[in-house]
Structure formats: structure tokens, C-alpha cells
């Protein structure tokens, strides 16, 4: 276990990819120095708790639900927006916990998800070429030279917005909002005209009756009041992630205190690259995205680097293959990693391999392809006898029109302009997200997946 992390200079010498280019490096230095003095956003013990829960996932006893915006923005971090995302995630978790009877580890893609890797450094509009938008942590979305300049002060805003978001989430999940007895009220403002809403209402009725029964039996009501909810984001901007990393006084090991879990993206996970070199020293549970071009040998090299101690819960592999590739590309990777004897958590990102441009120019995803990749992921794990440990989604609590399809709204390409609000990739809206949760719950209970988690082991605190 590491007791130190490499210096920023050492990481810089490895030529980290996808980093901002700041004109004012003195200002960057001052911002980093200031960030190093700021209080941690999460505690080491919380990261350890999450690692233990992910170890349950790796052992096939729990399921991860990880979700939130592709890119959070400073403007959108309102109470309503945060509540909306939390509500849809909690609703999905309830569907999975109650309908599939599997404990759900709830991970927000939030309170820090403000930086984006881009395939091109610049964007050209009407003959004007400007730096690409890299997330609010780096520059602004507006297509002007001033907004698109990389500004180190935004790292401080990243910290402040992450802190405010996490603070509200903590208040929501412990202050009564997440109380299971309020499961009905989370989706009170649903327009009650589609199947998914009726289905959710019916489930909520059942849960209410079940809880009333348990209370009548003497189960402590307090057990239903709070949930465990963890934060996560892509560890992309090394100056920020480095500044937020502190050596824990209890264990003398470094934790990235900007989130409970961080992951490495598909574009920055080179085994000899700066991001892997940074992340491998962290004690936090780590995720790594793996796409269809990954060879089994490359996947094994990655797990060797990031989980040298073969520690269950240490590593989550987030596969994002694309619906048309998952059934062929995933099995050799799962087999090679499993052959190392490790217990990793396998989770499916059915979003990033399924993005396409609609005829009207909108970047979108088809709900049917998202479902197809999830099904392919389940098929592969069923075939190999491994546990499909969770899903990683880009979603929002709002009724946006960014992904086409879905049974409830059946959004067409022509609907996309109505409420296309994402700052980066298209997200599932609330109905689409809940629909997906019901489909996953069905897949988990149709008897095809080997469940090592008998219903009897179910614990009330796992809600
Ligand atoms: C993302 O999660 O938004 C992302 C950029 O994903 P990936 O690294 O898998 O492309
Ligand atoms: Co994305």
C-alpha cells in the first residue's frame, strides 16, 4: 500500500493526456496551493466503507447503480436539479432492491463530474476555430474566445460547487428525503399517463404495505430513514485531483478526498500513463473504463497496475462496448481478468458505446440500444458464470429529450430539440431511467443469472 503519491512534476513528466493548457501558470500554482488547504469533501473511512460494499458486489452479493450527468455544470447545480437526480437514482435503487431483492450500492456521478475528455482539441463553427469545451472545471460552454479560454480559477469553483452539491446530498439522504416511507412522494409530480409511472406507483404501494408490516412487527423505523449514497467522478484533471489528495492520519495512506470513488476514463487509462500512475497510489475504490478496442492482455496489465494486492472491492471495471460489440468484445476480457484470480466488480456503461448523430444533427442515443447493451452484458456474464455487478448511466431527473425511444415517451428524433439540455452527452430522462431499472430488475429475477445472494441474506440497512 502506498504511503505517498508522485509529485505533480513527476506526473507531468509522463505527459498526461487531456489536460488543460493554462496561459497563467503562476495563477494555477496559487489555485493549487489554495486547494491543498481546503477541507476534504469526503473522509477516508467513508471510502473504506464503499470499498467494503463494492467487495460485496465483486462477490456477487450486491449491485451497483452509478449515475448522473455526463457533465455537471456550475449553473445547473441548483437544489431542484440535485434533488431530481437523487430522486431518480433512489427510485431506480428501490426498484432494484425491492423487485430484484438485491442490495444496491448507490453511487452518484456527481459532486465533482465537471471535466470532460474530448476527441478534438478545437471546435469550428462558421469558420471560427476555438478550444473545445472541456467541462465547466476548465472553460465555458459558450462559443466565445473568452469563455473557451482555460481558466485555473475554475478549479476553485469546481471545489466549491462539489462541496455545495455534496452537502445538499448528505442533507437529503440523512434528513428524511430518502426515507423509504416517502417512496410515493419522490415521483408525485409524474404525469400519470404512462405505464412506467403506474408500475412505479404499484411498487411504491407494495413497499408501503411491506414497511407498515415490518413496523408492526417491531422493526425500528429509523432503519428506513437514511440511505448510504456515495460520490464519484472521472479523475481527469491531475492538478485538482492531486491537490485534493491527503494522507490519512489513521492509516498513513493517501486518499483522494474529492470523491468516494474516482474512475479513469477510456481515453486516459494507458497503463504507463500519468493517470494510472496517480490513481494506483490512492486508497479509494477505483473504477476504470474499458472499451471494445481493449485487448485481454491490456485489461490484465491494467488490473495488475491498479489492484496489485488482489483486494476485493478495490477495482470496478466499467465496460462500455456498444450494443453491437458487447457480446463479442466482453467475454475475452472478463475471462482474462477472472483468470488472474481477482474479484473485481463488473459494471456496464451502456451509454458511451452507443452515441450517434441524429439526422437533425443532435448527438443522441437510442433507448433500445442502451437496453441491448445491458442485455448483452447480462448474457455474457450468464454464459461465463460471473456476476453482472451493476450499471453506470448518464441520466437526469428532468423530463429532457436527449435520448430517443423508451416505451413510455417513445421519443422520436424530431422531439430532440424540445428539451435538449445536456452540456455534453445525451442523458436518459426520468421515465427512461425508471423503465431501464424495471427491465434490469426483470433480468435479475428471470432465473438466468446465477444468484449467490439468497433472499434470506437480505439486510434492511442495504436499502
Ligand atoms: C464519460 O463517462 O462521460 C466518458 C467520457 O466516458 P468514456 O471515458 O468511457 O469515454
Ligand atoms: Co459522457
Shape: globular
Mean pLDDT equals: 94
Beta strand % = 5-15%
CATH superfamily: Aldolase class I
Keywords:
alpha/beta; two-stranded antiparallel ribbon; binds cobalt (II) ion; 13% strand; globular; 463 residues; TIM Barrel; binds phosphoenolpyruvate; 13 helices; eight-stranded parallel β-sheet
What is the strand and helix layout of this fold?
Layout: H1 8-12, H2 25-37, H3 44-58, E1 63-68, H4 79-99, E2 104-109, E3 122-125, E4 128-131, H5 145-148, H6 153-174, H7 195-216, E5 229-234, H8 238-243, E6 245-247, E7 254-256, E8 261-264, H9 274-279, E9 286-290, H10 296-306, E10 315-319, H11 326-338, E11 345-348, E12 355-357, E13 363-365, H12 367-384, E14 390-394, H13 430-445
Parallel strand pairs: 1-2, 1-14, 2-5, 5-8, 8-9, 9-10, 10-11
Antiparallel strand pairs: 3-4, 6-7, 12-13
The structure holds phosphoenolpyruvate and cobalt (II) ion.
Phosphoenolpyruvate is lined by residues 70, 117, 234, 265-267, 289, 320, 352, 425.
Please provide a written account of the structure.
With 463 residues, this protein is of the alpha/beta class. It has one domain: Alpha-Beta Barrel (TIM Barrel), CATH 3.20.20. 37% of the residues lie in helices and 13% in strands. The strands form 4 sheets. It has an 8-stranded parallel beta sheet with strand order 11-10-9-8-5-2-1-14, sandwiched between helices. A two-stranded antiparallel ribbon has the order 3-4. Strands 6-7 form a two-stranded antiparallel ribbon. A hairpin with a 2-residue loop joins strand 3 (122-125) and strand 4 (128-131). Helix 4 (79-99) packs across helix 6 (153-174). Residues 70, 117, 234, 265-267, 289, 320, 352, 425 line the site of phosphoenolpyruvate.
